[in-house]
Structure prediction request, 439 residues.
Amino acid sequence: MKVLKFGGTSVGSAARIKEVAKLICDGKKNIVVLSAMSGTTNSLVEISDYLYKKNSDGANEVINQLGQKYYATIEELYSTESYKQQATELVNSVFDYIRSFTKDLFTLFEEKVVLAQGELLSTGMMNLYLNETGVASILLPALEYMRTDKNAEPDPAYIKEKLATLLAKYTDTTLFITQGYICLNAYGEVDNLQRGGSDYSASLIGAAINASEIQIWTDIDGMHNNDPRVVEKTSPVRGLHFEEAAELAYFGAKILHPTCILPAKLNNIPVRLLNTMQPEAPGTLISNATEKGTIKAVAAKDNIISIKIKSGRMLLAYGFLRKVFEIFESYQTPIDMVTTSEVGMSVTIDNSKHLDEIVNDLKKYGTVSVDEEMVIICVVGDMEWENVGFEAHILNAMKDIPVRMISYGGSNYNVSFLIRAQDKKNALQSLSNVLFNNK
Ligand code: ADP
Ligand code: ASP
Ligand code: MG
Prediction:
């Protein structure tokens, strides 16, 4: 059995839904995970913002606009009155439900319920479309099997057991449609796996059913060797190791949600990135295989803050690093990059929520300085330290860029640089020119 996940753009219109329907009906047993139609989750976030501010007029305006999009999609998608009617009933009930929140107290709990509606709409509409065209697909409600625990982490044992029980009811069914992104939390409330989390749903489902492959279908032909939104002349990378893909996703390659790799890697399930707009393109295969000695791709992570702690007394001191890390731990702030020297250290964070408190606490141990609006550039590939030359090659590409930190040796798979946000485009372009385009 395979898991096929389609993102927002892939199901973003009636025409796209019809294309996806063709792709998923391949006669094999598939679980299809859908995101909300593109723009929907953003609109639901906007509606929630209005509701928090008790501005029901503002909320109603966005609700009506969003509703129009769905009614127009229904007209184009279904050909029979009976299915138009069923889809209209579904959309009416969802929008009436969202409207009901304009009258009552609005908290985080209600927000999660509102945010869940996008995936409920897209999957409901796809399933009706398939049924109209004679396909006996079954809708698997994610809220019946996808669950997080008290630490807000997915609960693989629960997911596996519930999904197996659900699937066992439909032994003759080949095509299942389910929602990405949404789940129940440890308290049984509606919750989600964070923005972009449908990729995570797909890999959790893949792990739970021990799928032969997890396919992430999107609007581009696989992982490119640099960010196509920023850099000219990027090209698809055909194969990535799980570790390489995880580094790229974590350090900004938007095509893949960073959490999505781990469940696949732990269960050794290949992940294939494919293009809905060009289904015959080979895309990218993420697996355990490595290509020795090659630099694969570059990614950038924005909104990074670097913190430098200089301590005259650090010389030959032990326990200094522990004390520094404990401060970050006590504010539940993860560190991305670390560099050290004999007199001090620099770290980076991407969450500024407790920055002032962290800086205040660090001042006990030395002089502290902060740089904001920084970017991590991450160069990924097979970079075992015995290989010579690749560091020089990468540094050559960065020769005109002011570099604040460099990190190498934490894994075999990456070299990272911290630079100013204003230098990001130049750095990415130069890395592409030198590393991939032989300029
Ligand atoms: P979906 O809605 O299908 O989940 P996303 O918008 O989350 O799709 O991800 C696809 C987008 O990721 C692409 O359109 C592309 O602009 C962007 N992207 C950023 N970096 C990369 C990269 N290295 N390779 C491919 N796509 C990338
Ligand atoms: N619909 C959700 C979002 O826009 C989840 C996803 O698309 O992966 O974030
Ligand atoms: Mg995505």
